[in-house]
From TrEMBL:
Superkingdom of this protein's organism: Eukaryota
Segments of skewed composition (Basic residues): 571-594
The protein's name in its UniProt record: TOD1/MUCI70 glycosyltransferase-like domain-containing protein
A Pfam cross-reference name: TOD1_MUCI70
Region of interest (Disordered), ranges: 553-604
Coiled-coil intervals, chain numbering: none
Keyword set includes Aminoacyl-tRNA synthetase: no
Spans traversing the lipid bilayer: 62-82
Domain TOD1/MUCI70 glycosyltransferase-like: from-to ranges: 217-530
Keyword terms of this UniProt record: Membrane, Transmembrane, Transmembrane helix
Keyword Transmembrane: yes
Organism: Vitis rotundifolia (Muscadine grape)
Length: 604
């Protein structure tokens, strides 16, 4: 196995790739030994030629030949190891292609990686994840998601999306990582191959993805929900009991589950998280694609999207949900006016927010967009601190349609185990330790285990949930509903509840979530600081340029005052007259004594 990993690493950085391409040619190695008296005459003549050959090659060349021969033997052993391991199973290739270390993570150690992951930078190609879809005679789409077993292909494929036989990005590969930079530590973005906007728009699937087993999803409506259990959630969530929670994971063709907005006639109308009637009518309009975000508690500074095409500006609305506190700040700072627009963002004001925690309020639009936008097909959610840097159509094509996925989210840049994520949250003071411990212990009793090789092809249990790319179909809507119910019942740290909900649904139906690299996420969104951090940062010192002073130059007959920037210029000198051989220039530099405190300007 060691030889196989060594060869794979060479593919990334070229150390052994030169050997494969024939840059080094092994030469026969000669060993000089004493001639034996028992050798026949022909052998003695050959032995006499060896000293001359040794002189011709010299010691350095012999040493190089020995090294080249040794390297060639190492290469052959590694090649044979890979050949032996290839037919056994696909688990090694899955591990190498999916579980590779992020080479663009500068300053982070790999000590937290599991024991079975290769600690190398593996060359990653988009065509590993890209599998063209083809339709059989029976009409079944046999393209399958790269993280799914082959038998789940008909369920996971996006119907109506037929990529070209030769995708423009199929030969794309990560370039070598940038050199370490002490001034810039932590994770970095990595290159991503996007289609041009016109081709991305042409790639929109003509029909919706299939929803495995679940065909109709309904939501609980109750005017006066009653709390019967100590950890039953909130009034906004309807206080679902533990039995109702467990029944919601029993996937059927038609289901009714809790999914927020329990009271009132429709989401946003007397439900908590109330929205003005004029805005509700706009949110009910049909759209192919939307982009949504939220800022509650005046927690972030609104970020304007960049590199948005004219087609997206015309057809893709950008919605920003804010509460009354954020609205007051934006109006006082003249950011928001009566148009309800800030750049590309259409501002949606929310009244009667149900939670005291602004972060928990932000989970409502983040996870329940399908309830707020009942007639939307695709959505991109980004947290309020993020700035979108790539056109929405290009993001959808790269991370959803090209992957034959219905929901995509990035992995955490470092952690992939829920138990480690819980300890990190406690150490950083993200939530009170008692509530985190209660939630993790509850999940342990339900069967949640630390991440291990047994979970392959699942690549991580911890998402970086600030970006969610989603197609609104029953199975994805069910997932985000049940994910929200966990956030409502336990802590607001959605990274802790992601895996338990996903695993429970996957145990019932053939469905999965595409989890892409965090460095790829950082390619299309820029992560800014929260407002409180920005306010505590010391502003950079202002650059002060002193005004030019007026000086009087000695020797000026009229005593004119000349600005210093003009007076400081050295006047042009005329060529001195030629001197004879015996004349010596007065004040010559070779006879001038320089004091210890004097420094000639020319030496600077």
């Amino acid at each position: 196995m060691t030889g196989g990993l060594l060869g794979l690493r060479s593919g990334s950085y070229g150390s052994l790739q030169h050997l494969q391409n024939g840059a080094f040619h092994p030469q026969p190695q000669f060993v000089v030994r004493k001639p034996s008296k028992m050798l026949p005459s022909g052998s003695r003549e050959k032995e006499r030629l060896l000293p001359y050959l040794f002189r011709f090659l010299s010691r350095r060349r012999v040493g190089m030949l020995i090294l080249v021969g040794f390297a060639f033997l190492v290469f052959l052993s590694g090649f044979s190891t890979v050949s032996k391991d290839a037919p056994e199973s696909n688990s090694v290739s899955i591990t190498q292609h999916i579980h590779h270390i992020n080479p663009y993570d500068n300053g982070e150690s790999d000590q937290d990686l599991p024991f079975f992951l290769p600690r190398i930078e593996v060359k990653h190609k988009d065509n590993v994840d890209y599998i063209p879809s083809t339709v059989t005679e029976s009409g079944e789409n046999n393209a399958h998601h790269p993280l799914l077993p082959p038998h789940t292909s008909a369920v996971a494929a996006v119907i109506g999306y037929t990529p070209p036989l030769h995708h423009p990005c199929e030969n794309f590969a990560f370039p070598p990582p940038p050199p370490p930079d002490r001034k810039r530590i932590g994770p970095r973005p990595c290159p991503v191959c996007y289609l041009p906007v016109e081709q991305a728009i042409a790639s929109i699937p003509s029909s919706s993805s299939p929803s495995p087993l679940l065909k109709q999803l309904n939501y609980v409506h109750e005017e006066n929900p009653i709390k019967n259990e100590p950890h039953g959630g909130s009034e906004f969530g309807g206080y679902p009991s533990l039995k109702q929670r467990n029944d919601s994971f029993d996937i059927k063709e038609s289901m009714t589950v809790h999914c927020g907005f329990v009271t009132g006639s429709k989401p946003g109308h007397h439900t908590g998280f109330d929205i003005d009637e004029a805005d509700l009518k706009e949110l009910e309009q049909p759209h192919e694609v939307i982009v949504a975000s939220a800022i509650f508690g005046n927690y972030d500074i609104i970020q304007q999207p960049r590199n948005v095409s004219e087609a997206a500006r015309k057809n893709v609305p950008f919605y920003m949900f804010i509460d009354e506190e954020t609205e007051a700040y934006m109006r006082n700072s003249s950011v928001l006016d009566s148009s309800k627009r800030v750049g590309l963002w259409r501002i949606i004001l929310v009244h009667n927010i149900p939670y005291a925690d602004a972060r928990r309020n932000g989970k409502i639009p983040k996870l329940l967009l399908h309830r707020i936008f009942p007639n939307v097909r695709f959505s991109i959610w980004i947290d309020g601190k993020l700035q979108l840097l790539v056109d929405p159509y290009q993001v959808l094509e790269r991370f959803l349609w090209r992957q034959n996925a219905s929901l995509a989210i990035s992995r955490h840049y470092r952690r992939f185990d829920v138990f480690e994520e819980a300890e990190a949250n406690k150490a950083a003071g993200k939530y009170d330790n008692v509530s985190i411990d209660y939630q993790i212990e509850f999940y342990k009793n339900e069967g949640l285990t630390p991440y291990s090789e047994a979970k392959l092809p699942i690549t991580s249990d911890v998402p970086e949930g600030c970006v969610i790319v989603k197609e609104h179909i029953p199975i994805t809507n069910l997932f985000t509903c049940l994910w929200f119910n966990e956030v409502d019942r336990f802590t607001s740290r959605d990274q802790l509840s992601f895996a338990i909900v996903r695993d429970k649904i996957m145990s019932q139906v053939d469905w999965n979530i595409s989890m892409f690299l965090d460095c790829e996420r950082r390619n299309f969104v820029y992560q800014a600081y929260h407002r409180d951090l920005l306010e505590h940062m010391a502003p950079p010192p202002p650059v002060v340029h002193p005004p030019p002073r007026d000086v009087v130059i000695p020797g000026n007959r009229r005593g004119a005052v000349i600005p210093e920037n003009v007076a400081g210029r050295t006047p042009a000198r005329k060529n001195p007259p030629k001197r004879g051989r015996g004349e010596r220039r007065s004040g010559s530099r070779r006879h001038r004594k320089v004091g210890p405190g004097f420094r000639d300007n020319n030496s600077i």
